[in-house]
Automatic annotation (TrEMBL):
Keywords: Lyase. This is Carbon-phosphorus lyase complex subunit PhnI. The keyword Lyase applies. It comes from Jannaschia pagri. GO terms for molecular function: lyase activity.
Amino acid sequence: MYVAVKGGERAIENAHAWLAEERRGDPSVQELSLDQIREQLALAVNRVMAEGSLYDPDLAALAIKQARGDLIEAIFLIRAYRTTLPRFGASAPIDTGAMACDRRISATFKDLPGGQILGPTFDYTHRLLDFKLAADGEVPEAPMRAAEADDVPHVTDFLNREGLIEEAPQDDTPPPDLTREPLEMPADHALRLQALTRADEGFTLGLAYSTQRGYARNHAFVGELRIGSVPVELDIPELGFAVEIGEITVTECETVNQFKGSKTEPPQFTRGYGLVFGQTERKAISMALVDRALRWEELGEDFVGAPAQDTEFVLYHADNIQATGFLEHIKLPHYVDFQAELELVRKLRRDAGARDMQEAAE
């Protein structure tokens, strides 16, 4: 039970004013612009867009600024704003095979048509603080730019030619929209992927790590990781064809996993899949590992009790906004509840004391 806090309106207004002052920081320091956040904190912007389910770098930058860098709070702001937007239609599925790749690597095949593209990555840095950045030093321009858009076949297509990997599931049935409908079980593959796409990156990373440490027997190779821009098309019924309305940057990961086969399927590799807004490769890889772990039942594998295999556990706890709301609600007044608990504990202590005195008397 919650009770109203009387006389708290002025205190709340003062708290808001103090929050705005703290957000601004020292007035003698130049204020961050949205352009600076969008361009120089791009990975934070990408995460907010992905977990907020809204692709808009400018709005994500605004949310980060308003939230003082608290990304979960920024994601909350983006999701709340998203609910106010009208919906004009649904875009056609994006074709990642026609991606203009900024980064494309494979841990399974060295020689790829189109080559491996290392792209902008921390993978080969020494993780040493660069004090030139503190001095606002000049950054040299990269010698190569993004690749031109072209058909870039997926690595798993090479395995598929020999029947060494399962066929990618084909289902044109539109899944329920998690932005409009609550999550319900059982969740099919498409709905699970939708939930994992907007799941908390840290939670998904922890689950993925657990699968690699033996909690799900999920040894995987990164078949391919690609980052780049893809066109977005919208079907116009009046025209009878799709019209390109813009481009978005996405990260796609396909993992190749072992599979010993079953009574109906020969031994072959299986897939894990991840697709996320922006350059978000840690999340995409984590998503692919968890996706594969959740597929144990449809592949006829044993349930070993691993958290990453439990669909309800994963999907019901992966949403950081729901988790934050439930966690932080305990900060609200619980005076009546606590008084009831307090009186109960006092009564139990009195009863226990009375029993001790009676036993001592006997």
